[in-house]
Design brief:
Blueprint (H helix, E strand, L loop, with lengths): L1 H42 L1 H4 L17 H5 L3 H8 L5 E3 L2 E3 L11 H15 L5
């Protein structure tokens, strides 16, 4: 009987730890997403708009942007180092300089990238 009680207790502890870790990861993911949204609104939305639609033929859209979908690893570098030269996004040519963001930490850029990928590049939109 004591052995069965010990096993039940052990299972309860194991599942509690498992679910608390999942809750922590979910909470951290939500915090990262919120921070990414805040940074995006402050640093990116002026040009790319809050809804990711871009602005006329001046600033490319991020929402469903084929360029970003084809180059997902480039997003971090574009935010950090900026971008010069011609780029075609969804069949439209853009050629304004995107300035570098040297004041953003790598972690902040990661949060923006996560936000952009989740909000604007997910297949559910």
């Amino acid at each position: 009987m004591k052995k069965n009680n010990f096993l039940v207790l052990l299972c309860i502890v194991f599942y509690s730890l498992l679910f608390s870790c999942a809750d922590e990861k979910q909470a951290q993911s939500r915090a990262n997403a919120n921070h990414g949204l805040e940074l995006y609104e402050r640093m990116c939305a002026n040009c790319h708009q809050s809804d990711g639609s871009g602005f006329v033929k001046l600033y490319p859209p991020l929402k469903n942007a084929d360029y970003l979908k084809q180059n997902p690893k480039a997003i971090f570098g574009i935010i950090k180092n900026g971008m010069k030269g011609r780029v075609i996004v969804n069949g439209i040519e853009f050629n304004l300089v995107m300035p570098a963001n040297p004041k953003l930490s790598d972690k902040e850029i990661e949060h923006i990238v996560e936000y952009v990928q989740t909000r604007f590049l997910s297949s559910s939109e």
